[in-house]
Write a structure and sequence with these properties.
There is one protein chain. With about 375 residues, the protein is α+β, with helices and mostly antiparallel strands. The protein contains 13 helices and 14 strands. It has helices at about 25-35, 40-50, 60-65, 75, 80-90, 100-105, 110-115, 145-155, 190-200, 215-225, 310-320, 350-360, 370-380; strands at about 125-130, 140, 160, 170-180, 180-185, 190, 205-210, 230-235, 240-250, 265-270, 275-280, 290, 330-335, 340-345. A hairpin with a 6-residue loop joins strand 11 (about 275-280) and strand 12 (about 290).
Length: about 375
């Protein structure tokens, strides 16, 4: 499947994060000045963690604030870089399970499968593709069919996203149509013909047009009208799924999606036992901060209770129980006024989403036994 994050995005579609280079000298100097960590010590730590099973890169070292003297040597060793995360997840979901991983990663068929099983998931109104030969009514194969659907059949608001890829790259919220113009959720508009051309140019292999969801009114009062999904990570012992941790992804004030790479986005760590927000993190590196209230609404974030919490956990575990062979899953769950809705499942969940707000590594003393137990089970099964 094509990785949409490496393709250029169209004007109406969300562009991906810029590639980061090596850490700036100013960052190294700031850490030395403000945290008392000598540059040579920083370089020594980075080299050691990069070469170890942590696979922690230099930018990750600074972004996650691993340099902070509050972390002793043991605590620093509990952080994983993206390479280390991928390696750990692969032990829990080995490539021998590739058929299952491909199925749960299919944003079209997987959500249909959940809905058929009585688990609330997203509704796909149309699927744009030039690479699948089919006469199904909801499949749009060219610009004329896209335009006709947007004008005559679409039920707005819509949320569009690539069939493949991640990080919300290529996504768009469309609130409605007025004549020839589509009204975009982030403001502004685009002609329906231009939108059709953009989607076909950038994502010919597949683009989903889904019914847009609205967040629960309690969450909307705090964080705005864009969906800020929960990332609920579950593991499976062969008998039943169990939640490991959960994070609330709060969109940036002017964003229409909840990915943390967008400037101003926040991550809130949730107490898995009761759904209470423990802290809320914004930013990266030395400038990162823990905040108590939302910067726009001024409503408290820390201490608030996530609505439908127990149901969100049950829904995620029920979805994982459908594929017990998978050792770990990361579910993106939207909480609406009607209850939790599963947006998608990740067989390689990005634990950076935990490490930022927790301000500790994902291999800490609370979570590492869970990972080790799951890895041991997969090795035994394999």
């Amino acid at each position: 499947m094509t990785d949409a994050s490496i393709q250029p995005s169209a004007d109406a579609l969300l562009k991906g994060p810029e590639k980061t280079g090596n850490p700036q000298e100013s960052t190294i100097a700031q850490v030395a000045k403000d945290f008392g960590v000598h540059p040579l010590k920083q370089m020594k730590d980075i080299l050691s963690m990069r070469m170890s099973a942590q696979k922690l890169g230099s930018n990750e070292y600074y972004d996650l604030r691993v340099f902070d003297p509050l972390h002793d040597k043991t605590a620093k060793r509990q952080f994983l870089g993206q390479g280390g995360i991928n390696a750990m997840n692969l032990l829990m979901n080995p490539d021998s399970l590739m058929e299952t991983k491909n199925f749960v990663g299919n944003k079209l068929t997987y959500t249909h499968h959940l809905n058929d099983a009585g688990i609330a998931s997203t509704e796909t109104q149309a699927f744009v593709t030039t690479e699948h030969k089919t006469d199904q009514d909801f499949v749009l194969k060219d610009a004329a069919e896209i335009v006709a659907f947007m004008r005559d059949k679409a039920v707005y608001p819509l949320f569009g996203k690539p069939f493949g890829g991640s990080l919300s790259v290529g996504s768009v919220r469309i609130d409605g149509i007025d004549g020839d113009k589509l009204s975009l959720g982030k403001g502004g508009s685009i002609s329906v013909e231009a939108f059709a051309a953009d989607v076909l140019r950038v994502y010919p292999e597949g683009y989903l047009l889904q019914t847009a969801l609205a967040p629960h009114q309690k969450l909307a009062r705090v964080a705005g009208d864009a969906i800020g999904s929960l990332r609920i990570v579950t593991t499976h012992d062969g008998n039943k799924a169990k939640p490991a941790y959960a994070v609330w992804k709060l969109p940036a004030p002017n964003a229409m999606s909840d990915n943390f790479w967008q400037d101003g986005s926040m991550l809130a760590l949730i107490d898995i036992s009761n759904g209470t927000v423990l802290n809320c993190h914004r930013g990266k590196g030395p400038q990162a901060e823990l905040i108590e209230q939302h910067p726009t609404s001024k409503m408290p974030v820390v201490g608030m209770q996530i609505p439908f919490w127990d149901e969100a956990l049950r829904t995620s575990c029920a979805a994982h129980d459908m594929f017990p062979e998978l050792g770990i899953c990361g579910f993106d769950v939207a909480v609406t006024d009607q209850g939790p809705v599963i947006l998608e499942c990740n067989d390689n969940p990005n634990h950076m989403l935990y490490q930022f707000p927790a301000r500790k590594g994902v291999r800490n003393t609370e979570l590492d036994p869970i990972w080790k137990e799951t890895i041991a089970r997969q090795k035994k099964v394999g």
